[in-house]
Specification:
The chain has 2 domains: about 15-245, Type I PLP-dependent aspartate aminotransferase-like (Major domain) (Aspartate Aminotransferase, domain 2, 3-Layer(aba) Sandwich), CATH 3.40.640.10; about 250-370, Aspartate Aminotransferase, domain 1. A hairpin with a 2-residue loop joins strand 6 (about 160) and strand 7 (about 165). About 35% of the residues lie in helices and about 15% in strands. By secondary structure, it is α/β, with parallel strands linked by helices. The strands form 3 sheets. An 8-stranded mixed sheet has the order 1-9-8-5-4-2-3-12, sandwiched between helices. Strands 7-6-10 form a 3-stranded antiparallel sheet, with no helix packed on it. A two-stranded antiparallel sheet has the order 11-13. The chain binds pyridoxal-5'-phosphate (PLP).
Length: about 375
């Protein structure tokens, strides 16, 4: 049985959790949360990093920080996880879905300008599979129309666009430490603030709308309710687990890259029957995901069923947001969604996790190449 994903320990997770308990602080913003903030700020060379309990929470904070009001439009891909859209819909915003590129499966930067109206308030890009969107073009459009850019970098910790870490290129960046991502804490996330004008308010929103962070720093003499907000911060126990993972993030991404390259080399023999991931020259990715694209839904279904019958669990995603019940209700499309619809029907993600062994990889490959299988004639 080879699952799609497996949570793992890398190093000192238990030791740090024990230490956090010994220090007597398990609420949010304890010593391990601070260590994670400092680590991320240094590693990503960004102005401010704030841990959240999920990337969903970081996206919700971004929507509040951008003052999204009912009727405001936010341009985004339809081929993404629900939280990209939901975070803005919770503020009354209207997702405006734009199709993706054939090659990277990222939002097609050439379709963005056409989706802009006087109601547009932001552009939210998603770096699919940890491979960067075409950020130069996107920032150029954003600048021309004075729109903030949010990076849903949930999958992209440790990835770069032209030497710049993803998540630090737009005004705000959002990371996920969900157990299916590269660096994990079960559930977890971070908001990266690249435009310093958002820092003070972000701390307030994250602390239930109070100026508690300023109070702890001695900047105000009492703390009180000053803005809208919620409890977006994780327990220091989660941060302790995360800190051990962050310290090892290069090691984690290196191991995933070996698995990624192993898959890529293997699947190259099927070129023409399937399509493998495309990585633009100006992008360095973090091996978040290994996917292949089949010719049609029937072949993909056949492949997944065949692998499952052998105890191996590849998965597909996403059901496009633009045609989902909530997407129809709360959003609208700009242009046609042909690539999104096709990719949604034909993409398969292969098992990918830090502890995936050489034996497991060999076993996956041997089921695919086995003579006399359904897979042979695909
Ligand atoms: C995983 C993911 C999210 C949500 O992350 P959580 O930490 O589970 O909230 C959002 N957007 C994208 C693109 C993701 O892959």
């Amino acid at each position: 049985m080879i699952p799609f994903n497996k949570p793992f320990l890398i190093d000192k997770e238990f030791e740090y959790i024990q230490d956090a308990i010994n220090q007597g602080v398990l609420r949010g913003d304890g010593i391990y949360t601070k260590k994670c903030h400092e680590f991320l700020e240094k590693k990503l060379n960004c102005k401010k990093a704030l841990l959240t309990h999920s990337c969903t929470a970081a996206l919700e904070m971004a929507a509040i920080l951008l003052d999204i009001k009912p009727g405001d439009e936010i341009i985004m891909p339809s081929y993404t996880f629900v939280s990209t859209a939901n975070a803005f819909v919770l503020r009354g915003g209207v997702p405006v879905f734009v199709d993706i590129r054939e090659d990277t499966l990222n939002i097609d930067e050439n379709l963005i300008e056409n989706a802009i109206t006087e109601k547009t308030k932001a552009i939210c890009v998603v770096h699919y599979a940890g491979v960067s969107c075409e950020m130069d073009k996107i920032l150029e459009i954003a600048k021309k129309y004075k729109l903030p850019v949010v990076e849903d970098a949930a999958q992209a910790l440790g990835s770069f666009y032209k030497e710049k870490p993803l998540g630090t290129i737009g005004d705000l960046g959002c990371f996920s430490f969900h157990e299916t991502k590269n660096v994990i804490s079960g559930e977890g996330g971070a908001l990266i603030i690249n435009d310093p004008k958002y820092i003070e308010r972000a701390e307030i929103i994250r602390e239930k709308g109070t100026n508690r962070s300023q109070f702890f720093r001695g900047e105000v003499d009492k703390y009180t309710w000053v803005d809208i907000g919620s409890s977006f911060l994780p327990s220091d126990m989660v941060a302790a687990y995360l800190f051990s993972q962050l310290e090892n993030m290069d090691k984690i991404n290196k191991k995933r890259m070996e698995i990624w390259q192993n898959y890529d080399e293997f699947f190259s023999r099927y070129d023409g029957k399937i399509r493998r991931p495309y990585i633009p020259n100006n992008c360095k990715h973090n091996a978040h995901m290994y996917y292949v694209l089949f010719k049609n839904l029937a072949e993909r279904t056949q492949f997944i069923d065949y692998m499952k019958s052998n105890g191996i669990n590849p998965v597909f995603h996403y059901i496009p947001l633009h045609s989902s019940p909530a997407g129809i209700k709360y959003g609208r499309v700009s242009g046609d969604m042909a690539v999104t619809d096709r990719v949604s029907d034909t993409l398969v993600r292969m098992p990918m996790y830090y502890t995936l062994s050489d034996e497991e990889l060999s076993s996956i490959k041997s089921f695919i190449t086995k003579e006399g299988t359904e897979f042979e004639n695909f």
